[in-house]
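Protein data sheet
==================
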Amino acid sequence: MGSFKMTLSSKPYLIGITGTIGSGKSTVGKILESLNICVIDTDHIVHDILNNQNTVTTEIINTFGEEYKVDQDNNCFIINRKLLGKLVFSNNDARKKLEKIIHPQTLINFKQLIDKNKAKPIIACLVPLLFEHNLNSMFNEIWTISCEETILTKRIKLRDNLTANEINDRLYSQLPQNKKIELADFIIDNSKDIESTQKQIIERLKILSG
């Protein structure tokens, strides 16, 4: 993949990119990075928070219990993300509690990364729960990544080794795909190969660059 240089009048131009689990946000992020676009992935921010001992992880343990703690050699602990994921995706109240704990710090870190990269002409932000957390107003435009339902579930099963019930729990915990499509400024169909997805992205960037 070649590089793509952006020239926009306002800096930075923020693109919020969302989609249901398995839709291909990471794939789109990699394509954008290959085109020299700055990408911020909020999933990575969340993982970083959970993989370090801090006030957020302490509150998680105090709320959900010691079984979600993984002790480290340096007398610190991290969160067992897989075990916690099983709980929150099967229990709506637990999921809401976790989001209330982790969302504020995630948003702080997210804004700090945007500020750190404010000299970039464009920043693409991968935000799975963009609409669910009412973050629409943060972005100049919003892309939704769509994917055929059968392909979506197949990708999730292969990637995460989940049961059909676990896949459904994760899909139902988010806004339905058709609603995310309805709310977006631009739709990327990621049902085909990576070349097709890349072509759609490049065409959109060409439009944005005038």
User: Anything to note?
Assistant: The domain at 13-193 is CATH 3.40.50.300 (Rossmann fold). The radius of gyration is 18 Å. The first strand starts at residue 13 and ends at 18.
